Amino acid sequence: MEWETVIGLEIHAQLSTNSKIFSGSSTAYGAEPNTQASLVDLGMPGVLPVLNKQAVKLALRLGLAIDAEIAPQSVFARKNYFYPDLPKGYQISQFELPIVGLGHLDIELENGETKRIGVTRAHLEEDAGKSLHEDFETQTGIDLNRAGTPLLEIVSEPDMRSAKEAVAYVKKLHALVRYLGVCDGNMQEGSFRCDVNVSVRRPGAEFGTRAEIKNLNSFRFIQSAIHCEVDRQIGIIESGGQVVQETRLYDPDKDETRSMRGKEDANDYRYFPDPDLLPVAISAEDLEEARASLPELPDARKQRFMAELGLNADLADDLTNSREVADYFETVAEGCGDTKLAANWVMGGLSALLNKHETDITDAPVSAAMMTGMLVRIKDKTISATAAKEVLEGMWAGDGDADAVIEAKGLKQVTDTGAIEALVDEIIANNPGQVEQYRSGKDKVFGFFVGQTMRASKGKADPAMVNELLKEKLKG
Amino acid sequence: MSQVDSTQTAELTQLSLKALQRGIQSSQFSVMEVTAAYLERIARFDAGLKSYITVTEEQARAQAEVIDNQIRAGELKGALAGIPYALKDLFCTDGILTSCASKMLANFVAPYDAHVTSKLKDAGGVLLGKNNMDEFAMGSSNENSAFAPVQNPWNTDYVPGGSSGGGAAAVAARLAPMVLGTDTGGSIRQPASFCGVTGIKPTYGRVSRFGMIAFASSLDQCGPMAVSAEDCAITLNEIAGFDERDSTSAQVDVPDYTANLNDSIDGLKIGLPQEFFAEGLDQQVAAVIERAVKAFEARGAVIKEVTLPNSHLAVPVYYVVAPAECSSNLSRFDGVRFGHRCDNPQDLNDLYERSRWEGFGDEVKRRIMMGTYALSSGYYDAYYLKAQQVRRLIKQDFVDVFNDVDVIMGPSAPTTAFKLGELVDDQLAMYLADIYTIPTSLAGLPGMSFPIGFADNGLPVGMQLIGNYFEEARMLNIAHQYQQQTDWHLQTPAAFA
Fold first, then answer.
1. Cα separation of B152 and B162, whole Å?
2. CA distance B113 to B102
3. Is the peptide bond prior to B2 cis by the omega test (within 30 degrees of 0)?
């Protein structure tokens, strides 16, 4: 390796509060322009900000989850610059004293090792509005619905050394904020936005000059943007040039980054403590309350699934990526008393349906109770695994719970020896050629007989009994 | 009924708030009559004085009628029910021009009421109009108004002080029995002193700033100006208290400010800061102050000389902190959503630059530039941060002094009112007009000014009274006791009799 990539990330996570960080306006996405902008959001003369305590609670939750230092006193500061979608002419943010200090997040590398990524800080701030350039000829529309939406800006240390590590970190953080209920993680709607700082250096050398790539809103774009930025920087240095510190934008259509503004164009933000807001004081009780509100964290839950439930690492990983999936799984596993069966059906049949219908598990028509009901019927041999697939689809389609679908579709497993024996006899009689092959030592043909028999039973025959009977009868 | 003869007009407009309230509740006269009396005086006298930017005559008459009915129905009984008042033109008033005496907001009709506006509305007060002021509360002479300079009723060649000069002049000329002003570095106390009225700047956080267009957020405080300490106490009762819409408003219980007005001041320990009596203080002002101090001594007060060793740094500190905050507070006036917008902007920068260049006056621009500079990267530590450190020292000086004395007294301003135009070209001299009031503001302490006599030029002299945090009741008590023995506060300028 001739070059080493150095990456640090700034992530803006929109906090899942009902109202804005300094006003009572709704934060719901997609409303008509300026219908969710109060006098405070409009920056009317004379209005004052009042801190939304829920935003503080959510910030604390993330801070505790990444084992970070929590500032007993943090301070809101004004970041001053002029832009039409910034109504006050300053953004209320945190500068010198952020609420969340140094913490860390562990990511898994491809070789199975764990790497610790430092989180420098996370601070609270308000979002700006949106400028709408498309809809008005020669003019710009301003929509202030988003102005004042609470954000947590989470800044990492420059600890990542490849695009893959960066993506692993972003995914991990993305899963974590959703897990904690801190942010809905919706990247399309901009609830989770990513700025990437990239530089290259010779291994062991000082950090190179970095470029910041703004506003990447998918994991794929993060990866591609880093790749082409790294190539660009190496190209410049190898041809004798120097990388300049600047802000760049990634164009996914052309797969290239281009300069947005240089360092010399950067604003002097004239930060100073906002005299309209008191310092945010966090007491021991506040911390205790936040700690109590924390769910079992993904890493801990994964370890527990492996140690106590005997799941393998991959399955445990998949099941703990989302808190809702993990909760669903645990409910089902407990209800049916079979961890592996539950894991296989949640990550198998159910997961496939969720993907196919692009549905979240919380909105799935098959509740954890319904899934449990079906697995109980597999366990007590009322239905076969084959029939269960049909039951699941029936439940998804709204045909009722497992028992109702089994009854309606007549999927009850046949365990009557006489009935199965008759089927087996018929199959053997109708396929003399295959019988001949089997008896001459072609064991593989056995599968053919099982399949034929199950099909003839419309999947209702108990596969164990079919196996047993076939083995006996084929001996001849 | 709205036809009131001038004798009665003059009589009604000489009454204290208490007397007005008593007369209204006992149906001796109606709210409409009182309102009409003030409106008539405004019409007669304000053309030259310019103490009002907007007179809300029609609304006032309509409101007066409604309140008369409510009072007759027994629905409204409070101390301010039916009392006319005026507001400095930086308090938002729903549906009424709120201009900050600036071209920038010359078209701004506020869409909501400030906290104090709704408090006085709810109390049954009748809004007479909006008082003239220095643009965005920046100034000490009221010459920075984009509309017109205000004249001092005691001598119309002189300034009324600033920035709440319109309100102070209105009270002095009896064009309102009570007004609300704001004080950032002396903007209630200095004009109260220049115009011979009583005004109090409460402890920072005592009155909500919600709906008060900001100059310097960490210093701005609303307070009443009226003829007497008693009238100020009655008003403060209605407007003081915590407001959840202002995070910096104090969650401290509000006493009844009228309850202790008659307490004895025997044994009161008064501190006189030596720095307030040093070079720069006009000899005649010093003499009038000395006479008043003797009067307190005669009534049993104990006089002690004290020292505020860092007070000489207050003016420079103030002119870093206040402009820094204002440079940010005034960024919202960008021509995008409200206020002045230039014609035919060529692009975004042109829109910003010309809207702000045309909308703001010179003093506002000067302070925005000073503040922007003080906050700039590379200068922040040397200016803003250093100023905040010195501010803590200034505050500590007061904390130390209040270990030894109950209140501090001294001049409100180094001189009586100066002539219109006299200091316009001497900004530094203008800034020094607030030399005795600024330290209190930086410390967040309550301060008041009440009239204690006249200099040889016939202009009033005010005594500044500085109390410990949230001790407004004590201060009002002390001023009231003085006003029970003297009638300086009851004198009216001859031209406005």
1. 11
2. 19
3. no
Out of B98, B214, B376, closest to residue A270 by CB: B376
Is residue B428 exposed (0-12), middle (13-18) or buried (19+ Cβ within 10 Å)?
Answer: exposed
Tell me whether residues A87 and B337 touch, CB distance under 8 A: yes
CB within 8 Å: B332 and A43: yes
What does the pLDDT profile of chain B (497 residues) look like in tens digits?
344 455 566 689 999 999 999 999 999 999 999 999 999 999 999 999 999 999 999 999 999 999 999 999 999 999 999 999 999 999 999 999 999 999 999 999 999 999 999 999 999 999 999 999 999 999 999 999 999 999 999 999 999 999 999 999 999 999 999 999 999 999 999 999 999 999 999 999 999 999 999 999 999 999 999 999 999 999 999 999 999 999 999 999 999 999 999 999 999 999 999 999 999 999 999 999 999 999 999 999 999 999 999 999 999 999 999 999 999 999 999 999 999 999 999 999 999 999 999 999 999 999 999 999 999 999 999 999 999 999 999 999 999 999 999 999 999 999 999 999 999 888 888 888 899 999 999 999 999 999 999 999 999 999 999 999 999 999 999 999 999 999 999 999 999 98
Q: Three-class SS of residue B320?
A: helix
Residue B452: both structure tokens together: 């204690």
A34 touches chain B (CB under 8 A): no
A82 vs B212: CB contact, 8 Å cut-off?
no
Within 10 angstroms of residue B174's Cβ, the number of other Cβ atoms is 24
The Cα-based distances of A239 to A235, A243, A245 in angstroms read: 6, 11, 18
Distances (CA, A) of A382 to A403, A417, A452, A467, B199: 10, 15, 21, 17, 89
The answer to whether residue A352 neighbours chain B at the CB level (below 8 Å) is no
- Compute the nearest-CA separation of A136 from chain B (Å): 15
Contacts of B21 (CB under 8 A, 6+ apart): B79, B80, B81, B82, B83
Question: Tokens in use for A215?
Answer: 């506003």
Domain definitions of chain B by residue range: 6-260
Contact between A317 and A299 (Cβ < 8 Å): no
Measured CA angle at B476 (ends B473, B478), to 5 deg: 110
* Contact present, A270 and A80 (Cβ < 8 Å): yes
Which tokens in the block code for residue A445? 């043909």
Strand order in the sheet with A211-216: A103-108, A114-126, A150-156, A4-14, A192-201, A211-216, A246-251, A256-262
Q: State whether CATH 3.90.1300.10 applies to domain B6-260.
A: yes
Q: Letter for the amino acid at B76?
A: L
